[in-house]
Amino acid sequence: AMGSGYPVSAIVGKRSWMELIATGEVIHAGTMNAWNAGIAAALATVDILEKENPYPRLFALGNRLIEGLRTCAAEAGLPLLVQGAGPVFHTGFTSLQKVTDYRDTFQYDKTMQGRFIAAMHDRGIRIIGRGLWYISAAHTPEDIDQAIETARIVLKQL
User: Fold this and answer.
1) Which end of the chain has less Cβ packing within 10 Å, N or C?
2) Helix %, strand %, coil % for the chain, to 5?
3) Tens of pLDDT along 74-104?
């Protein structure tokens, strides 16, 4: 994410640990170490994010999608739990009102989840296989509406 798709990484730690690398006592080698294009991509990404401030728009689109999915699930009579923060959220089929820890995840209907995600993928909506959804700055209100309508169809078919 730091490099908008370009390989970028960072190594951080206590000064005493980092000095071992800086002095050469510990060797750190890698194909993309100090790769200028990756660093340039990361700097350009940060610059664009600071100038355009997409976060309010991302949260608005994400919340619109969250509410749309909740409405579609209620219309279909299915226990789809949608929880998260705007542009990053999770969906799972459970009667729980909230999932707060690892033990709660055992209450998810993984078969239903798999069928839902496969049907959404078949219709061009990409969801991470464990139920994670991400909104990006490239998404439009029309994309959100399309995802909601697709979910409406899929949930009614389930």
Assistant:
1) N
2) 55, 10, 40
3) 999 999 999 999 999 999 999 999 999 999 9
